Amino acid sequence: MNKIQAEELLEKYGQQHIMKYYEELDDMGKEALLSQIENIDFSVLSAHGAPEPDKDGVIEPLEALKLQDIAKEKDRYKEIGLDAIRKCKIGAVLLAGGQGTRLGFDKPKGMFNIGEKIELPIFKRLILNLMDVVNESGSYVPLFIMTSEKNNDDTVAFFKENDYFGYDSDYITFFVQDMAPSVDYNGKIYMEDKGRISLSPNGNGGWFSSLMNNKEAVAMINKFGVEWLNVFSVDNVLQKMADPVFVGATIDSGCASGAKVVKKAYPDEKVGVMCKKNGHPYIIEYYEFTDELKRQKDAQGEPAYNYGVILNYLFNVKALEKIADAEFPVHIVEKKIPYMDDNGNYISPDEPNGYKFEGLILDMIMLLEDCLVFEVEREKEFAPVKNKEGVDSIDTARELLKKNGIEI
Ligand code: UTP
Q1: Which residue owns the Cα nearest ligand 1 atom 9?
Q2: Domains plus CATH for the chain?
Q3: Total-model pTM
Q4: Which of 70, 64, 401 is nearest to 261 (CA)?
Q5: What pLDDT, on a 0 to 100 scale, did the predictor assign at position 50?
Q6: 203 C-alpha to center of ligand 1: Å?
Q7: Which residue stretches of 225-286 are H helix?
Q8: What is the mean pLDDT of residues 7-31?
Q9: Pocket residues: Cβ below 6 A from ligand 1
Q10: pLDDT in the model for residue 53
Q11: Mean pLDDT to the nearest integer, 33-58
């Protein structure tokens, strides 16, 4: 792309300020900026927030496999799961491309030390959880770790320095997710410096396409014959990956996917709730939740929409391949975005100052035929580290780790 083409493109999207310092850049800088402009998907700028609630969509409850049902079949599910794990049919995908702005830690979130008396980075905690499955099954689980351009080098180096926390590195593949521009409240793309557009990871919804674009990851999937991918977030320090009981129950159900859920802590808790929409599995966001839906009860007299997702999903790879080319909605998310101001100073804001554009993993679920909703005990499996303090914070996660007898 040459300068004139870039200017034409930017004019079309009202982003001419990007070239403000172009003439001050050296040849390499000019080339780098033009290449950035060429590779950006400007169409995301026309996204207008999360998709409007679909008024015509028919929302129905989707019954969960509850703790008591799971307990009855636990041994059988576990055997099915362990068998699949031993045959290397199950891969684990750690989503670690986010920026963790709420935590305000300037390294990858997985490097955050959740220990008190001992050094316990979140990555180590997660690998130790996965090692429980390795020890029980006698087989390593292929692990794919999604990073972003912003944190890939730090993440890869950290794993290497720590000898992969005892995991066999032949079973680990890192892959980098795509980036998207971020804008101020007037829709103007932020610059990072005079020759560089500020880009952010494009949300966790792009994990499958990014995984499939990585040759090493595809080779690993083919080599081991991986049929299912268990996708989970980096910030839940009680996260159980490749949990044999969950894996076995999902395979046994014949569903194309499974979602771990916890019972809502209180009716207005701000979590996405599993349900059905137009016959497909769906995650209804708290802001779409009407009073009428809140009042509905199931046959046992319990609230009909009562199970929140915890970002731990199991996907059948063949089912994902079928929806790989579908168009996913783009969500606008308000965030703190570091940027260069009009005087050329680099600013790292304390408060949100604009929007990022993100694809979300939950949009994948609704394209699938079905989903097994699998209840887990909140206190045993859900300790997210989202905020510095308060709800879902470092302190609440530490408390829950201790409650579960984990040395920190
Ligand atoms: P969050 O929605 O909590 O986003 O991510 P975040 O960027 O980590 O944190 P905040 O909102 O800025 O504080 C949930 C999971 O999805 C991953 C995160 O790493 C986390 O595991 N994620 C999020 C990605 O892998 N890529 C993204 O672009 C966004």
Answers
A1: 100
A2: 1-39 (no CATH), 56-403 (3.90.550.10)
A3: 0.93
A4: 64
A5: 52
A6: 7
A7: 244-253
A8: 96
A9: 95-103, 146, 177, 201-204, 233-235, 311, 335, 358, 386
A10: 55
A11: 78
